Amino acid sequence: MALRPVQVNIKALDGSAVGRFWAEALGWSAYSPGVTTYVGPDGGLVWPDPVAVCVDVVPVPEPKTAAKNRVHLDLATTSAAHQAELVARLQALGATPAHVGQGNVPWTVLADPEGNEFCVLEPREIYRDTGPIAAVVVDCADPRAMARFWGEAMDWTLREVTDDHAVLRSAKGVGPYLEFLRTPGGKTVPDRVHLDLLPYPGDDKAAEVARLRALGATALDLGQGDVPWTCLADPEGHEFCVLAPS
Question: What distance separates the 2 farthest-apart alpha carbons in the chain?
Answer without folding.
Answer: 49
